[in-house]
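Predict the 3D structure for this chain.
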Amino acid sequence: YLNIAQNIVIDGKAILCNRGTPTDCFEGVLNKQPHGLPVLISIIFFIFGVSENAASLFMIFISTFSIILIFCAAYIWFRSERIALISALILSLNPISALFAPTISAESVFVFFILITILSLWFFLNEKDIYSIILFMSSLAFSVQIRPEAPLIIIPFLVFLVHEKIETKVLIGATLFLI
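Done. Predicted structure below.
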């Protein structure tokens, strides 16, 4: 992911470098995985310079902020401070989550963006305006770009929206926006 992000910043191409120097790529292979994480890291590289430390600190920030987001999501959906605290405690004490926090892996970022998607879904269900559906669909679209199996997450969200009896034209427009 770091090399692809570096090539996005330096060459403007999402490629994995096979042969080159630290500042130039002579031969590369197109990335066949989703581009969400390399694009996100390339933004960090563009702001702070190409550095593994900057990417690692960003990943630690994402992992830490996910604990706050899961607290907010659980509190908003269940209206229980106890459930929210237990949810945040489980995520913060999860050894896999702690293990992946400083690494450049898609798992932590995927959790972060799914939590943002869940919060934006709640916002959409309460507001039901064009801005909230755009926020929800944008966060869902970016979440899908993080991991190869992430498009499967669309199914439960659409089932939930159909269950909530959202207008058909809004669902069609949201689906077209997602595509």
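Residues 52-78 form the longest helix (27 residues).
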